[in-house]
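Troubleshooting: if your tokenizer reports a length mismatch, compare your output against this known-good record of 218 residues.
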Amino acid sequence: MNLVGHVAVALAPAAPPPSTEFLVGCMLPDLAAIARVRVARPNGELGEGVAFHHACDHVFHESEWFRSTNRKLRDALIAAGVDSGPARACSHAGVEMLLDGRLVEDRGVDTHARVVLDAVTTGAPALGALAPDSARDAWVARLRTIGRSLDPAQYRDPRFVAERLHRMTAGRRRIELRADHVDTVTATLHQFRPAIADAATGVVDAVRQATPIPRRPA
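Known-good structure output:
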């Protein structure tokens, strides 16, 4: 799952939302991946959020829906001329981002995702302690940039997703998406977007049922 998906799973119906600190933890592993920084496992509610993130990812990635959709998108990209390495990377992350694009149409999910991104911006110095000394300044700067610039609603746009995939894979020789394949990826994502959107609510419900949120005593 991607940034918004983890927040959506944590927002269980008929239950009070988790703390913002917990939700920041839900996003933290993905933020570290975007920044390409290895960070230590935090304690407290932040750490509980990180643990919840990994539990959700395990359930999601093992689900038949993700495996099937990922495989179909990968095969479609390869058939359209995208190299196999980039096709695998783009299918995996592309499914997750398009899922975010549908989930963020829910006002509650959108509001909480933006609150978390604001908290990442303001809390960047404290989160900086999780990174090695040599990477700390870059990590803090990257968190601030992500928190200020990322608009979750942009995941609704296959072109934005394709361009983000191009940036994410840049410099990674085996999975790097070529610039001249961005249009191809955009067109293929357009084809898959409706089916992913239709499945989004059910996918989140299934992941939520399999990964209960830890609740602290009142």
